[in-house]
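The pair is set out directly below:
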Amino acid sequence: MTQDQGLTGFNILLNAALNKSTAFTEEERDRLKLRGLLPAAIGSQATQIERVLENVRRKESDIERYIALMALMARNERLFYRTLMDHIDEFMPIVYTPTVGQACREFAHIFRQPRGFYITPHDKGRIRTILDNWPTNDVRVVVVTDGQRILGLGDLGANGMGIPIGKLSLYVACAGIQPNQCLPVMLDVGTNNKDLREDSLYLGVRKERLEGAAYDELVEEFVAAVQDKFPRALIQFEDFLTPNAYRLLGAYRDRVLCFNDDIQGTASVALAGVYASTRISGLDFSDLTIMFLGAGSAATGIADLMVEAFQAEGLSREDAQRRLWFVDINGLVVKGRDDLAAHNLPYAHDHKPLAFAQAIKSVKPQVLIGATGAPGTFTEEIVATMAQINERPVIFALSNPTSRAECTAEQAYTWSQGRAIFSSGSPFAPVTVNGKTFAPGQGNNAYIFPGIGLGAVICEASHICDDMFLVAAKKLAEQVTDEDLSKGAVYPPLNAIRNVSMEIAKAVAQIAYDQDLANAPEPPALEQAIAEYMYDPYY
């Protein structure tokens, strides 16, 4: 049971971490001076969840359901997380993708109360000082964004705070990170979105974005301040523009405990899906050729981890890179192009320039992965071409939210005559084609980053290494059952996600212990230590 911290009366009812509302017992009502402040009926948490479900489900839109759930989090934390955990299939798409995209677009208009920590250029030189304003001193997970590339929606400025809030709610629900050890951070450095700057309700800095050296200096001060104030904290970079995402990851990955979810988390979940797909296609992973539509941080992050996976299968680094092909807005990524970023160069192959459809016909990939943020780019021609080349074409439309997916599940199955092995970043309803019903699993990063964070927290890791994401992908793929595969799903059901996180956390912590990256002593029973740490929202 959560300790009452000496609070009584309305003070305990207004404390989200302590409040049980109508579930306070007769003894607690007397001891905590709640007599008269609550209605007579004493309800169980299960009864309260029934009330929550009735009220949330009567809402007419997902954004209204989002608002209702965020309000519940603000007044009764344990009830919120118990509801989310017990109904993860229903409410993860509300708390996170796809609804969080709309929540971020409308963040200033649906704002109810402050949550998280905001840092602006005006705070330069005093970030460490203002971090003392945060009410807890033992933060273990920080999710930070600057709001410049929110999902596939672009620059949303300070409205992007919805992303760290949502990610951290999944850290708690999916992996049991303690809520009071989570810190959502918005680096509000302005926005280049003119419509936002002119919105009378906008809550962020009404200037164009800080860039260049001044931007890097602010980030450096933030990272140093977190290290000093919260020395055991993991920093997760989220939804930064691709050049900044790569530069910041390169600058800090060997200095502090950090990772970039768009680059590394997406890579791990995509790799897991490809691993699982081979159990349907019957192909060996080491024989695959994989094509990406999109060459930003998500796509190249997936490719970088796949290089490691191919090398683990015995391929040389050069041979591994030759299995991975990219198509961007200007066509096939090939040598001789003068418009490529540094992270694209290892995948620029000797080949004539081709448009997307022609590139598929020439390269003949077994796997097609979309990470573009451009909806509808997997056209009927593209899917049909993949199906002509492959008996079981693998088609991953990973862009979020749902409105940005490269194709829908119905399109993928219909255009391939039910032969596609499909997954997406946001959920789709089951599809029936030729008398067979497919229920594709969602390739959501929530399968990966909570377990990575849990493993890092348990062992007090000093760094996050690539091996951790590789083993996380393998552990996730191992959780996919034959029954899941028979339904067309290459990911386990969401209701298994805490078990998935446990398996990933054990493997991540073990790598940290084996590679001397752990600061905490190795417990005699690792799984027990993890289970004892994990947050329990029951009362």
User: Anything to note?
Assistant: The mean pLDDT is 96. The two ends are 7 Å apart (CA to CA). The chain is about 45% helix and 10% strand. Residues 99-256 form a domain with the Rossmann fold fold (CATH 3.40.50.10380).
